[in-house]
């Protein structure tokens, strides 16, 4: 029996586009670039030879076009793993659910997804300007804990080692972090030898969850010292951002290939930041477009 998805579960707009993204199935390419900032969509698309569609709704801006003969869709996700839940489920529905019959398609259509973002660096080898690929992500966001199969795709020994190291108990810094790998094939193809491969914490906020203390004190004032010192089987935690865990996790559960690469715009160790990063991120965008 094919799975059927009623209108309350998969909401389709009157024009045949998917609820939040406002994208129609025929507009989706197999290669997808995700960015947080809607303004970054135009920067990616400025390299396209042609554009076949452009649509915008809330923080989700989408353009599909061609780069050196490759059909690519670029979508902005806004900030946070809650938005990645929406974007990934709607992209997967566009690819793998028939919008006329509301049934799962017979043949699975895999997508290749690369997130190009910004991040905070946590180690001496991640100064401002470094490109860091998230080989593993530690999700502080809790999203994957709501999906069956979470334990089959996560690195459980890594999770236990991290939790022991942080010695959090009760509801301190809950929900429980999950540890998930990006697609190794994509990382090898995109990172090559000129990007840092690391472990990324995808935080559920920019301030407290990333150990930034303004007027309200942190639950665990030693959080970032412990994170910077953590080491497991040769892995050290390299950076903070806010989406890579849900992207890697949902992609694994859905059967797609995904990875995140971010440019460091703040180094938390030496307390420096760069807000004028538009040119450097364009170098990263061109590199990803060439390698995807
Ligand atoms: C926070 O400033 C935002 O920047 C990073 C974080 O993941 C978060 O979304 O990524 P983007 O530059 O892609 O938005
Ligand atoms: N994005 C983040 O999430 N954290 C930083 O420190 C910089 C960019």
Automatic annotation (TrEMBL):
It catalyses: uridine + phosphate = alpha-D-ribose 1-phosphate + uracil. One of its GO terms (cellular component) is cytosol. Its EC number is 2.4.2.3. Coiled coil: none annotated. CDD domains: UP_TbUP-like. GO terms for biological process: purine nucleoside catabolic process. InterPro entries: Nucleoside_phosphorylase_d, Nucleoside_phosphorylase_sf. GO terms for molecular function: purine-nucleoside phosphorylase activity; uridine phosphorylase activity. Residues 32-269 form the Nucleoside phosphorylase domain. PANTHER family: FI09636P-RELATED (PTHR43691:SF11), URIDINE PHOSPHORYLASE (PTHR43691). This is Uridine phosphorylase. The lineage of its organism: Bacteria, Pseudomonadati, Bacteroidota, Bacteroidia, Bacteroidales.
């Amino acid at each position: 029996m094919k799975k059927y998805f009623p209108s309350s579960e998969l909401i389709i707009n009157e024009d045949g586009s998917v609820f939040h993204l406002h994208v129609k199935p025929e507009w989706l390419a197999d290669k997808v670039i995700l960015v947080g900032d809607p303004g970054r969509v135009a920067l990616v698309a400025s390299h396209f030879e042609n554009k076949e569609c452009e649509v915008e709704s809330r923080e989700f801006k989408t353009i599909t076009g061609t780069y050196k003969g490759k059909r690519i869709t670029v979508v902005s996700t806004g900030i946070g793993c809650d938005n990645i839940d929406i974007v990934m489920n709607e992209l997967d529905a566009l690819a793998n659910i028939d919008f006329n019959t509301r049934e799962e398609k017979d043949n699975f259509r895999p997508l290749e997804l690369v997130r190009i973002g910004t991040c905070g660096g946590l180690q001496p080898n991640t100064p401002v300007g470094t490109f860091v690929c998230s080989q593993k992500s530690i999700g502080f966001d809790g999203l994957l804990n709501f999906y069956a199969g979470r334990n089959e795709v996560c690195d459980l020994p890594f999770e236990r080692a991290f939790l022991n190291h942080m010695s959090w108990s009760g509801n301190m810094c809950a929900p429980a972090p999950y540890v998930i790998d990006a697609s190794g094939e994509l990382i090898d193809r995109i990172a090559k030898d000129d990007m840092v491969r690391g472990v990324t914490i995808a935080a559920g906020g920019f301030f407290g969850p990333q150990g930034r203390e303004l007027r309200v004190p942190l639950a665990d004032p030693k959080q970032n010292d412990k994170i910077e010192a953590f080491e497991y089987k040769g892995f050290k935690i390299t950076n903070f951002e806010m989406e890579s865990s849900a992207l890697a996790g949902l992609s694994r559960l859905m059967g797609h290939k995904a990875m995140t690469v971010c440019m460091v715009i703040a180094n938390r160790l030496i307390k420096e930041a760069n807000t004028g990063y538009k040119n450097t991120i364009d170098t990263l965008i061109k590199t990803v477009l060439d390698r995807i």
